[in-house]
Every structure is written in C-alpha cells, then in structure tokens.
Amino acid sequence: MLPVWFEKHKIPTMGRLAALNPFPFDQPEDCDGFIACHHNDYLRLSSHPEVTLARNKATELTGSGAMASVVYGGFSGFHGDFQRKIAESAQAEGPESIVLTTCGWTANVGLIEAIASPDIPVYLDIYAHASLWDGARFAGSRIIPLRHNDIASLRQFVKTFGPGIVAVDSYYSTNGSVANLHEYVDICEETGCLLVVDEAHSFGLCGEKGGGLAVEQGLASRIPLRTVSIAKGLGGHGGFIIADIQTAHYLTYRLRSVIFSSAPTPATSAGNCKALEILMREPERAITMHARAALLRKLLNEKGVDTGPSKCQIVSLMFKGVESVCQLYSELKKRKILFSAFLPPAVPENTSLARFSIYFGITEEEIEYMAEQIIDSLKMLNITSQFPKGLRSL
C-alpha cells in the first residue's frame, strides 16, 4: 500500500491525465497499415536485415548482457569496432575520443554534471533537450535560459555572467529548427565559453558519412563536445560523447552515468556499428527523408498551416492548451496516421504539439495523403496550429 502523502502527491497529475480525451499515448501495438510518424527510427534501420544479423551473431558470441561498466570490464571488441566507425563518421580525433553511454539521456546528464559546477554558469537554449537541463541541475550550476537560436541574447548574458558552458541542440526535437553552429562556435571562442552540441536528431541524417550538423557545417574540429542518441538516426540503443582524446579519457573516469551503469551490450554495439555502416554507404536514405519532409511542409504551408521553424525531418504543429492535440491525434489515428503528442513538461505550459517524424521509405503519395488529412482534420475540428512569434514559418 502506498503512503497517504504519495497518493496526495499523485492526485493533481492523475486528474489532468484523466481529463484528456482521448488519452494521446494509446498507440497501437501493431503499426502495419499506418503511416507511422510517431517514433524516431528516421532511416528505418532498426529492423534492417544486416543490422539484425549483426546483433544476433554478437549475441551468440557474447550473450545478452554486458554485466559491468565500460570502465570496469564491460568493454568488448564490438564496442571498439563501433567507436572506430563513429570516429570515421564524426571526423573525431580517433576511437579513443568516443565515450559510449547507455543512452542519449545519460550522455547529456553525465556530461554536463561532470564539466559543470556551482561557480560555472550554464547557458541553455530554452528548447534544448531536458537532459541538458537536468545535468546542469545535478551539478548545482546557475542556469541561464537563452531565447531560442538567439545569439544576441547569449552574447549579452556572457557579458553579464561571464564565461561558462553553452549547450544547444543541432536539430531541435520538438519544433524541428536547426542551429547555426557557426555563430555559437565564434562567440564561444571569443569569450572562452565551452560549447556542447546535442546531435541526437542530426547524427546520421546530415553531413558527409552521416557525421551530423557539425560535420555538415565544417565545424567538427572546433566544437569541443558533441553528444548523440543512437535511438534516432541509427535506430538502435545507446548514446555517446565525442570529445578530444584527452578530454574523453577524463570523462570516462568522471561520468557517474558511465561508472555506475553497465555498458551497452556488445550485441547492441554490433548492431549500431552495422547501422552506421549502412547509412554511410547509402546517403540517399537521409536525402530522400529530408525531401519528403520538405514536401510536407510545402503542402501544409500552402494551405496556411503553420509548421513553425522546421527545417529538417521533424515537422510539427503547435496548439494552445492540450485538448487540440488530443483531438487531432484521435482523428488522424482513425485515418491511419500516427504522430507524437507532446504535452507539458515536454513543451511549455498551456501548449501542446503534434510532431511528425518523417522517415526514409515514406512515399510522395503518402506525404500528399498526410497533408490532405491533416488539413481536413484541422478544419473539421476547428483548430489552428500557431507557433509563438519568431518561430513561425509563414
């Protein structure tokens, strides 16, 4: 039996959830027959036959677990192979500059906690991933929120509070906006700030050999720290940090999320390595995905539907309150279209967001069908997508 104080603690949240009709997370177990834009396997590599075979072979050789952290005996040859492939793709110093973690969240939380402290300000874009904020909180740092993609606000705050850590996303996971990393690199080099770029939604999806936005913008050698979630472009599981070799060695023995977690399984790393190999040899996967996303934005914008600042595979609609996204989810599910419904705290209070994750394999005809159904559903439900001023596409 739960204690009374905890039951009272749950009541407000449970009441809000009960009021949602329909509950927006009732996703079908079998997505056959659906246009499935509700998860982040962008290049559809999670079930690729070569990836499955690589995982299965590694499982036969090593078993199903790692049983120790990478620091204390959990490292294997499969992990090393994956590090080498990452270093090639990301234009890193070498395999030793890659720190493997259990997921993207532990990469960000562990990294920020390891490099920050109460006397170091952490400058965070207001749309930066929650894990970056959590890491700063764990470190007890002073958090300075930055207006989204606004370099002028960063410059002003650094003048006021001094040099510190600047943390931004490359592709933003809710609104699909893209950071101009050149501006962040320049100001960090000018002011002595340390730049952290979360490439969760861009690694594997842009840049030569899928190296991410830092590679695409020619900045791989000038960005000190990059983090990646493998569950997106690679369709696998785990995460990693890209640093210089010396810093990577420091982090390996400083990251609580690495020291006190078992390593990713060898089989997982084998599958991830094969997925990275595939996307490197088949760049058309990412190219086609981006073209389909651009088509969806074009079709929606032509009919006055605001898709905000999206410039990548993430195409979103934003609403006031939480009811609209629930209604849209229910209606589009009937029409065999799935998306991710974002509610607070994933988005600001009194807002909600419909995120469509466009993927390799979706056809132009399916994109056209989606656009028609989204437009018709919005009209039928009498709801309007509207991003805050400064984040609108129209």
Describe the overall structure.
This protein is of the alpha/beta class and 394 residues long. The chain contains 14 helices and eleven strands. The strands form two sheets. Strands 2-8-7-6-5-3-4 form a seven-stranded mixed β-sheet, with helices on both faces. Strand 3, helix 5 (130-139) and strand 4 (143-146) form a beta-alpha-beta unit. Helix 2 (49-62) runs antiparallel to helix 11 (266-281). The N and C termini lie far apart (53 Å).
Task: Give keywords.
alpha/beta; 14 helices; 11 strands; 7-stranded mixed β-sheet; 43% helix
Strand arrangement within the widest β-sheet reads 2-8-7-6-5-3-4
Shape: globular
Rg, Å, rounded: 21 Å
Instruction: Report the helical percentage.
Output: 40-55%
Q: Give the ordered list of helices and strands.
A: HEHHEHEHEHEHEHEEHHHHEHEEH
Which parts are unreliable, with pLDDT below 50 for 5 consecutive residues or more? Answer: none
Q: On the 0-100 scale, what is the average pLDDT?
A: 94
Distance between the termini: 53 Å
Classify the beta-strand content into a percent band. Answer: 5-15%
Helix count from the secondary structure assignment: 14
The SS-based structural class is: alpha/beta
Largest sheet: 7 strands, mixed
Record field, number of beta strands:
11
Sum this structure up briefly.
With 394 residues, the protein is α/β, with parallel strands linked by helices. Strand 3 (122-125), helix 5 (130-139) and strand 4 form a beta-alpha-beta unit. It has helices at 4-18, 49-62, 77-90, 104-115, 130-139, 151-161, 181-191, 213-216, 245-252, 256-259, 266-281, 284-302, 323-334, 364-381, and strands at 35-37, 98-101, 122-125, 143-146, 165-169, 194-198, 225-229, 239-242, 314-320, 337-342, 351-357.
